[in-house]
Write a structure and sequence with these properties.
heterodimer; A: about 325 residues; alpha/beta; Rossmann fold; 3 domains; two-stranded antiparallel ribbon; about 25% helix; B: about 675 residues; five-stranded parallel beta sheet
């Protein structure tokens, strides 16, 4: 039997998705028996030119994790697309922009100023900034260019499948690999996971959703049996695709929404906001405002993983000079 | 490895096969959509500001559009025929009509589609009149916006699905709230049709404001003489259940099936024993200013408001009754021959079901004490028009004698029109009946006292049948008319004087009189806001209840099955109130005669494959239409109760709930296209 030809790549991500692949432990041997790997920067030494040398469509499946933030990530995404029959957006960052997508609340110049100037630990009196192109006496040095926003993989290349999760749970990875290995594939566009939300598999008891305000996980020891939302903890379970096995909730942590919305929902954060709005028990304006004030960092809470794919896609901000939307930041 | 062999890997076959369907649209058979677009000129209403031919050309280029036309009047028979012809000859299966508000003609065109064999919901209207031509003078901007709205409608209609209207049972019982002339008329008309009617009145007797009047304009009929037969008919009708001294506390449900809770306030009188003999209020030692007499006379603490009250059963005013305030007296109980007095009686809650509700809660008159310039409450002999009505009335505090505080007869009387009406400082609207009631009071004052009577008016509005003739008659009787608003009432030389600018003479005038009558504005009842909330009906900016359409649906409200009649909708005279009462009755009779209510198919639905039973939606439904299905562990929508408001849909975090005809797909497609143009 012909072995599957796989590639793994990481872009704007933390590396957790790659570690999750390794977390399948001894089953990695089954994968090794089934497949040959042609690119995996975290684990194996391949060069981009090795991939460039392959025939188009040579790789059967590419698992691409991380969002697309710079020109290098786009270049490799396009290269792997060309060389792969099936492109899988692997992990929440590739699927929805993920945590890096929250950077869309700021412009690229704001980000560079923050990182290279304003953080308390930064000492940079010469105001040095990274340059995409720099001439030295040996020749020219280049760095990838910084986009004005963070993009999910599907904004850059066509994607066949989505395996969400931060990181994707092991059993879901195995399901995907087995589906690929056996050729039992769902229609393109499918997101691996449940059609229903996390609540469907959540073992907690749900009664009436009425709260006076909200609490953060460190402020309360939740009752073990009762719905976390009904205890005032902001749990994104109702607005989040299931398939994770409610693993955070099992550990007394409210769902953070890493599987993104269900197929029917355009904007996970808007949906959760609307749902919470209906849960506040008071109809008195002052009390409602007080309840809302207990929500710390609404954008980071409701759009923790999906800001890049939300309706607004980020904060509406003035177009920065030299940096049209979707464009690349010029060297400073 | 033979990597380029496409058959070597199962993936490829599946992917290649599936690539032919459009990823992400989720819509089957979109290629079958054949849309016809019809741009209406509405005479010049639209065509004057919108270049209809350009919009038609633009529409013809849009996706799925197979035919685009513009026409003078799409709602006309030939206009509708265009659609029918295109269904037949061009095979269109979606229709976009760009014309007026769907509130005007959506039913028309739905019917058109149905007569052409298409489901009525395969229609979308683009409102290029109210939203385009009527809101700008800029032809270019109006045309561009019309094009954008048409593009949105074309994109949306592709997602429309055929929907079927259904019917639900209806309770053929009517609730009338308010026992004034409008409510009485409505109740009697529907009762005469053989249906059960419950009439709820807040006061101890029905009759309303009309019962307080002496004569009615322009015929000078005795108000009581024409009203009391109708009041008695209410009492005698087998089909009318009357609750006086009662209020509606809660309304739930929907057209055809309202559940209403009525609070019967404690009368402290057992009406089943009371014969109405009147001994109790004859003996009662406590006198209280009479509300019915506008504070001029007194009544007892146990009382019927007026002699012809229906029902003729007293109530105890617990705020003033010594038995309740001091814990001793008991005179009425001692003298009552039938033992009907019951100090222990409590409020009673009655729950009944009704198919329709008519609200006829009437009006009250503005209290001119708020405006010191007219002297009301500061000077003796400054009265309101209602107080003069009570003085003139033979059953009133002076037995019909118009007299001053000291008992003497006035030699000169001023009647001031538009007090608090047509006045930027108080109420901008015209109270409609005060011109005529001022004329009537002028006639009565002149007839009864022979006094000189001065009418201070801004404009005289004598618009009804026989009104102008009555105005002429009163002029011929020697009543003076001064065209100028009474600006101030002062005391001078031991008499009163009215200051005004006589706009016909162009001169300032100060007219000495003995009595000033302020004809004050008709205003919404002070509890009308609360009443509105109980019934879920809206006020218009002036505070009176809002009708569904000011011209064409004057008796309906935004809530199906709830109607309004009489002065609660705005000031009106007796003939108009009666007409509205009868009109509202006719609305109800046609509803009842149909025997069932049409249920819009535009309701929320739950995709049980998607719902994970999080219960977020359950407490949000204003109609209690959502419940939790314990077996399937999903939400369940009762389609008969659902009004399609979409509250649950907005809140549903999984997207399992949607409203038919307003799906995300439809709305997003529409918004995208509108913004793209």
């Amino acid at each position: 039997m012909t072995k599957l030809k796989l590639a793994f790549y990481w872009a704007a991500s933390c590396g957790g998705c790659d570690v999750a692949v390794l977390d399948i432990n001894e089953k990695i041997l089954d994968v090794a028996a089934l497949a040959d790997i042609y690119l995996w920067p975290i684990a194996m030494d391949f060069k981009y030119k090795d991939v460039q040398a392959l025939d188009d469509g040579f790789i059967d499946v590419c698992f691409y994790n991380g969002a697309v933030r710079n020109t290098e990530q786009r270049e490799i995404a396009e290269l792997l697309r060309q060389k792969s029959k099936v492109m899988v957006a692997f992990g929440s960052c590739a699927c929805f922009g993920g945590i890096p997508g929250l950077a869309n609340l700021y412009g690229p110049q704001e980000i560079l100023d923050r990182v290279y100037q304003e953080t308390p630990s930064t000492v940079n009196p010469e105001r040095v900034r990274p340059e995409t192109n720099w001439k030295v006496k040996e020749g020219r040095l280049t760095l990838p260019g910084f986009f004005s926003a963070v993009y999910p993989l599907s904004d850059i290349v066509q994607v066949e499948y989505y395996v969400p999760g931060c990181p994707p749970p092991v059993d879901l990875i195995l399901r995907a690999v087995q589906a690929i290995a056996t050729g039992k594939l769902p229609p393109p566009g499918t997101v691996f996971g449940s059609d229903k939300t996390v609540c469907d598999t959540c073992p907690r008891k749900k009664e009436e959703k009425k709260v006076k305000g909200f609490k953060r996980p460190h402020e309360v020891i939740p009752e073990a049996e009762k719905c976390l939302l009904e205890q005032g903890l902001i749990c994104l379970g109702p607005a989040t695709r299931g398939g994770c096995g409610a693993r955070c909730i099992e550990a007394n942590m409210p769902c953070r929404g890493c599987f993104g919305p269900t197929d029917r929902v355009l904007d996970q954060g808007a949906k959760m906001t609307a749902a919470l709005g209906g849960m506040i028990s008071s109809r008195n304006e002052t009390e409602v405002r007080a309840a809302l004030a207990t929500i710390v960092d609404p954008a980071g809470t409701f759009y923790r993983f999906t800001l890049s794919t939300s309706l607004l896609k980020g904060r509406v901000r003035p177009v920065e000079k030299g940096c049209p939307p979707g464009g690349i930041v010029a060297g400073s | 490895m033979p990597g380029s062999d496409a058959t070597s890997c199962g993936i490829l076959r599946v992917v290649a096969g599936a690539e032919q369907t459009e990823i992400g649209t989720g819509v089957q058979g979109m290629s079958d959509v054949r849309t016809g677009v019809y741009v209406c000129h509405c005479g010049s209403n639209i065509a004057e500001k919108v270049d209809c031919a350009r919009v038609r050309e633009f529409a013809s280029e849009l996706k799925n559009v197979v035919v685009a036309r513009d026409y003078q009047y799409m709602c006309s028979e030939p206009g509708q025929e265009l659609i029918r012809q295109d269904v037949e000859k061009n095979g269109i299966n979606r229709v976009v009509v760009a014309s007026c508000s769907p509130r005007m003609h959506e039913p028309t065109f739905r019917k058109t589609l149905e007569t052409a064999g298409l489901n009525g919901y395969l229609l979308e209207m683009a409102n290029i009149r109210e939203h385009c031509s009527w809101v700008t003078t800029d032809r270019e901007a109006a045309t561009e916006k019309a094009a954008a709205l048409v593009a949105g409608a074309v994109a949306r209609v592709a997602f429309h699905e055929p929907l079927e209207e259904r019917f639900a049972d209806l309770k053929q019982r009517l609730l009338v709230v308010g026992g004034g002339i409008a409510g009485i008329e409505a109740a009697l008309k529907v009762a005469a049709g053989g249906y059960q009617v419950t009439l709820v009145e807040k006061e101890p007797s029905i009759g309303g404001n009309m019962a307080r009047l002496d004569k009615t304009f322009p015929t000078l009929d005795c108000s009581a003489c024409i009203l009391t037969p109708k009041m008695v008919a209410v009492a005698q009708s087998e089909n009318v259940t009357l609750y006086t001294y009662a209020e509606v506390e809660k309304v739930e449900g929907y057209v055809g099936n309202f559940q209403v809770t009525i609070r019967q306030k404690a009368r402290s009188v057992d009406t089943s024993k009371c014969t109405g003999c009147g001994v109790c209020y004859g003996k009662c030692p406590t006198r209280v200013p009479s509300e019915f007499d506008a504070g001029l006379g007194t009544r007892k603490a146990i009382y019927v408001p007026f002699p012809q009250a229906v029902p003729n059963k007293p109530v105890i005013d617990r705020e003033h009754c010594l038995q309740f305030t001091k814990g001793k007296c008991g005179v009425c109980a001692r003298f009552c021959p039938t033992g009907a007095i019951d100090y222990e009686q409590g409020d009673q809650l009655i729950t009944e079901e009704f198919g329709a509700i008519i609200i006829a809660t009437g009006y009250e008159t503005w209290d001119p004490a708020a405006a010191p310039q007219w002297g009301y409450g500061r000077y003796d002999n400054v009265l309101t028009a209602m107080q003069l009505e009570r003085l003139v009335n033979a059953a009133g505090p002076t037995k019909g004698k118009i007299q001053l505080q000291d008992g003497s007869t006035p030699e000169a009387v001023a009647i001031l029109h538009c007090i608090g009406s047509r006045d930027e400082n108080y109420h901008r609207y015209c109270s409609r009946f005060c011109c005529m009631s001022s004329l009537k009071l002028a006639h009565l004052a002149r007839e009864k006292t022979g006094a000189e009577v001065y009418n201070f008016y801004i404009d005289l509005r004598a618009f009804g049948k026989g009104y102008e003739e009555f105005y002429n008659r009163v002029q011929e009787e020697g009543v003076h008319f001064i065209r100028g608003k009474g600006a101030e009432v002062i005391r001078k030389d031991g008499r009163l004087a009215v200051r005004a600018e006589d706009t016909l003479l162009g001169r300032y005038r100060e007219v000495p009189v003995d009595m000033v009558v302020l004809n004050t504005a008709a205003v919404p009842r002070r509890d009308s806001e609360k009443v509105g909330q109980v019934f879920g009906i809206q006020p218009s900016p002036d505070g009176f209840f809002l009708e569904a359409h000011v011209k064409l649906e004057p008796l309906k409200t935004a809530t199906d099955g709830i109607y309004i009649a009489g002065c609660c909708q705005g000031p009106k005279d007796i003939p108009d109130s009666v007409a509205q009462g009868a009109g509202a009755a006719s609305e109800v009779l046609s509803l009842f005669a149909a025997g069932k209510v049409k249920i819009s198919p535009v309701v929320a639905t739950v995709d049980s494959q998607l719902c994970s039973g999080c219960r977020v939606c359950l407490p949000l439904c204003p109609y209690s239409a959502i419940s939790y299905d314990e077996v399937n562990r999903t939400a369940y929508v009762n389609e008969a109760t659902c009004k399609g408001c979409g509250t649950c849909v907005a809140s549903c975090p999984s997207g399992a709930l949607s409203v038919r005809h307003f799906t995300d797909e439809e709305i997003i497609a529409q918004i995208k296209e509108v913004l793209a143009v």
